[in-house]
Design goal:
With about 300 residues, this protein is of the alpha+beta class. The chain contains nine helices and twelve strands. It has helices at about 20-45, 50-60, 105-115, 125-135, 140-145, 145-155, 230-235, 240-250, 255-265, and strands spanning about 5-15, 80-90, 95-100, 120-125, 175-180, 190-195, 215, 220-230, 270-280, 285, 290-300, 305-310.
């Protein structure tokens, strides 16, 4: 029987042990565990990798703890501009949305873009109209309001500053969310969702929804979901870079992922991490920050839910 596996992340950054209360740490691990179990159950029941990653990401989008869906940060105009992408490795079909407001689960809209449109990427009003036509759940601004996120925005509102969600060492909420999976048929998939940066310029697009930058899947190599300083991950084409090193340099998944996160992205000034899985259900979860919310489970019994460096 072929091995299968799933891994997920909830953001990487200044996560220093001791800075977070035990209750907060417990809350994060609880949601990570729930998301992991939802995705793993799909795989365990002979489901497809693409279904597993969507289920896991939707679970995290529904939590106010992470910077995606319900917990998305405030943009410069006080709205929540979300972005998400999903990709499956067998055919390399992909779907993505960005500058999307009012949608409960952006990742589900990205899935419909992939499967029910002739396009890969929809933005702004066009993405919203498409979501409405597909009967996706809309929420008013109260659903996305979070007092901590609001105060985070108030600190820099009206300025040209923006704040990366992972850049402060206080007791904060972190994270872009993502999942990667390998199913029993050795098919791969990746999904990523985010609310971007606090006080970001209207119209700003990060790496999360961009195939090849923040999200990528190819059965020949790997599936990757990234989290970190989006502008640098865009410039480094990070998700595809891992795949390319495996394909062109014959690196293992671990070698390629470590090369990209521990050397190549640092060389251009970026920080963050990624999760990746290959067609043999091997997993890699490198990061170059103090911590990364992450969880993983494989069919041969390897599992974990972690925040800090080991």
């Amino acid at each position: 029987m072929a091995r299968f596996a799933i891994a997920l992340h909830g953001g990487a950054g200044t996560l220093i042990k001791g800075n977070m209360t035990p209750d907060k740490e417990k809350a994060y691990k609880k949601v990570l565990s729930e998301a992991l179990q939802k995705g793993y159950t799909v795989l365990e029941n002979d489901g497809a990798a693409v279904d597993a990653v969507q289920e896991a990401v939707m679970c995290m989008e529904d939590s106010a703890l992470f910077n995606a869906g319900k917990g998305s940060v405030f943009s410069a105009n006080g709205t929540h501009e979300m972005e998400a992408a999903i990709m499956e490795g067998k055919t390399r079909k992909a779907g993505a949305v960005a500058l999307l407001t009012g949608i409960k689960n952006p990742i589900s809209v990205a899935r419909d873009v992939m499967e029910k449109s002739q396009h890969v990427f929809l933005l702004g009003q066009g993405a919203l109209e498409f979501a409405k036509s597909m009967d996706h759940v809309l929420q008013d601004s109260k659903y996305f309001y979070d007092e901590f996120r609001y105060q985070q925005w108030q600190e820099i509102k009206g300025s040209s500053q923006f704040q990366l969600d992972h850049s402060k060492s206080k007791n904060s909420k972190f994270g872009t969310v993502g999942a990667v999976a390998c199913d029993r048929r050795s098919n791969l998939a990746a999904a990523t969702s985010t609310g971007g940066m606090t006080n970001k310029m209207i119209g700003r697009l990060g790496d999360s929804a961009v195939p090849g930058a923040g999200n990528y899947a190819n059965n020949k190599t790997c599936a990757v979901s990234c989290t970190g300083s989006g502008e640098y991950f865009l410039r480094g084409v990070v998700a595809y870079d891992v795949s390319c090193l495996m394909e062109m340099k014959n690196m293992t998944l671990q070698e390629a992922a470590e090369e990209v996160i521990q050397r190549r992205i640092l060389e251009i000034g970026g920080d963050g991490g990624l999760i990746a899985v290959d067609a043999e259900a091997n997993i890699s979860l490198p990061f170059n920050t103090e911590g990364m919310y992450r969880a993983f489970q494989t069919s041969d019994g390897v599992a974990g839910v972690k925040i800090y460096k080991d």
